Amino acid sequence: MTDRTCHESFKVSGTQLLDAVKKVLHEGNVRRVIIKQDARTIAEFPLTVGVIGAVLAPVLAAVGALAAVLTECTIEVERTPESGDKSEKRAA
Predict the structure, then answer these.
(1) CATH class of the domain whose range is 7-79
(2) Does residue 64 contact residue 18 with C-beta atoms inside 8 Å?
(3) Of 81, 87, 84, 77, nearest to 23 (Cα)?
(4) Residues 60 and 47 sit within 8 Å (Cβ to Cβ)
(5) Domain definitions of the chain by residue range
(6) How many whole angstroms separate alpha carbon 16 and alpha carbon 38?
């Protein structure tokens, strides 16, 4: 079994930033969230498997503060494949 990751990226306005990050975190299997403005990395939040509730509060507070000062940014999300993912190749 290989350690594969999936990357996705999308642009949001500063006012949409917090809601977008909450949605991504709620979807699960997120390894890292990177917030960029143009080519500069503004913030990077590595997340471990099983991060829940109270542990996410400081991350969401930081994202909320960033949303107040950013006009437009890009969110990059690094995901791990879910266990039992049908796209994984099985050894014969």
Answers:
(1) alpha beta
(2) yes
(3) 77
(4) no
(5) 7-79
(6) 17
